[in-house]
Design goal:
This protein has 18 helices and 2 strands. The chain has 391 residues and is an all-alpha fold.
Length: 391
Amino acid sequence: MLSQKRTWIKSRAIVTLAALALAGLCAAQSRHHLDVDTETEEGKALQAIGTEQDAAKKVTMMEEFAGKYSQHAGYAWVLGQLEAAYVKAQQWDKIFPVVEKLMGFDASDAEMAYGGLQAAVGKNDPDLIVKWATITRDAAQKAEKTPKPEDEDELPAWEYKVKFAKQVQERCEYEIYTAVLRSTDPAQKIKLMDGLLAFDPNTQYATQLDEAYFLCHRQLGNNDKAIEIAKAMAEKGTANEDMLLLLANKAYEEKQADAAIGYSDKLIELMKTKAAPEGVSAEDWTKKKNTSLGAGLFLKGTVLAQQNKLSDADTVFRESMPYLEGNDALLGPALFQLGLANYNLGSGRKPNRARLQDALKYNLMAAKIKGQHQAQANKNATVIRQRYGLK
């Protein structure tokens, strides 16, 4: 309680809970020391603030003091108390100007800067998160270079400041990345990832960003950008199944046969060995694996058939059958092409009845699946039966 004419007020260390958890430390000494003369108007105001028990009223009193006495020695102490009150109340917008003013007293105050970063995270504002991560890192780099004090009483505070500064720099990068993970808006996600790469072009999260960039651009319909990312990752050998399938489809559409087969082969090889990602159930992964394998084999078989490599196409299409079950959009065309390949392989000068029997079988199967090939498959089956006397 402030009952004496001249009293020392020591502020508590202005540390957000998140910052304390980060550093695993408690500030050894106060940030701002204050000599209060209770005979002055400013001193009386500070004494009243110090003794006020009602939190809301205390905040109002501190705001009034900060507005009237910005040149007083107690101004920084009051700002520190306000920052702590705003953090507790999650009044994020009020924190930024307070932190900026406090950093005017000490540009190396990484702890206070981190409070601004936490406020930006609280607002979930991508621009502010990147801005305050940068401010915090810059302040921390300055703090690391703070000269060691000669006064032994000041050593604990200096050691805390330097240790916190070292730890918080890595935390800044992490805060941007976790904001990327939290975001469900692809446009916002891209903005955050751009900010992270600007913050640190060599970020440890680069590989994860590539996949996230790809997915966001796909969600936004930016297929050209998605293909660009997929190609870059394929060259590095880090493309996932969705990227490889997109590239295989694109190559097929552009009649780039070798590229289509190459990407299909990479997709097939990947999905035959890839383990279920963390958090994905075995059932869901089996569905994903079958879908990707079926699509890759179907594409490869289709290109081989177009190249008149019928025996190879037959082998690939047969392999695709278990993976295409339930996917009539691909199963029907695959069966039709199997029937056509076997007919062409078996209907030479010396008919191969085993091939022709397979041709009939696959056409009959295709004729049962609704789609563009259904009617033609039924006609083909009739012709094979009539021409070769098959049942």
